[in-house]
Design goal:
One of its GO terms (molecular function) is aldehyde-lyase activity. The chain has 228 residues and is an alpha+beta fold. The chain has a single domain, classed as Class II aldolase/adducin N-terminal domain (L-fuculose-1-phosphate Aldolase, 3-Layer(aba) Sandwich), CATH 3.40.225. Helix 1 packs parallel to helix 6. The C terminus is likely disordered. Bound molecules: 5-O-phosphono-D-xylulose.
């Protein structure tokens, strides 16, 4: 079942080590078929160099495993909450990519310091707070709900990325390939922003007109946040 989507998710997962976003098994990609009501995700704890397309795990939208010899990724419940809350996304990525994870561990969102950031993400990339107390009882589900809460006043399509404090980044897109692309962009932007602050600790975000111009030029007339 869903063999084509398994192949897509397998290839997207293999892009994570290809772009230097993961070490060992520290990451996962999924994609959803909303018409069929299933999503496909990487299996938990399987080394990337041993992964095969047929190893991908098929889940329903209640979080039940439908097909697959392995357990689904430990972050599956987070992916599911994002699919439920963000209707226009088709793929989700989670990694521990070093620069984005460093911002997450520092508990800071990433300001927009330049055009590379502005071309892909509108304004600051937020850092969601860390879970507390009993919230850890349903860790992965509540991580997803916390991301959704963080985007209550933000356009998830204009900022397809979030940092989870003391954990790491999640990105999304209209499909798995775009979600991986956004994960690569996030890591590069996180690296540049950290170095920018090292070079000039007084640095300020890029002028709003520059941010608007670059985001608008790439995403079209209705792209400005809040002007749709
Ligand atoms: O955040 C974590 C663990 O801290 C997970 O993302 C793992 O790094 C990947 O887990 P699997 O996808 O292999 O279950």
């Amino acid at each position: 079942m869903l063999e084509e989507l398994k192949q897509i998710v397998y290839e997207a997962n293999m892009d994570l080590p290809k772009y230097g976003l993961v070490t060992f098994t520290w990451g996962n990609v999924s994609a959803i078929d909303r018409e069929k009501g299933y999503f496909v995700i990487k299996p938990s704890g399987v080394d990337y160099d041993k992964l095969k397309p047929e190893d991908m795990v098929v889940m329903d939208l209640e979080g039940n495993k439908v097909e697959g010899k392995y357990n689904p990724s430990s972050d599956t419940a987070t992916h599911l909450e994002l699919y439920k809350a963000f209707p226009n996304i088709g793929g989700v990525v989670h990694t521990h990519s070093p620069w984005a994870t460093s911002w997450a561990q520092a508990g800071r969102g990433i300001p927009c310091y330049g055009t590379t950031h502005a071309d892909y993400m509108y304004g600051e990339i937020p850092c969601a707070r860390c879970l507390e107390g009993k919230e850890f009882d349903e860790y992965e589900k509540n991580t997803g709900l916390l991301i959704v809460e963080t985007f209550k006043e933000k356009d998830y399509e204009a900022v397809p990325a979030v940092l989870c404090k003391n954990h790491g980044p999640f990105t999304w897109g209209k499909n798995a390939h775009e979600a991986v692309h956004n994960a690569v962009v996030l890591e590069e932007v996180a690296k540049m922003a950290a170095r920018c602050e090292m070079i000039n600790p007084e640095v300020k975000p890029a002028p709003q007109d520059l941010q608007d111009k670059h985001y608008y030029r790439k995403h079209g007339a209705n792209a400005y946040y809040g002007q749709n």
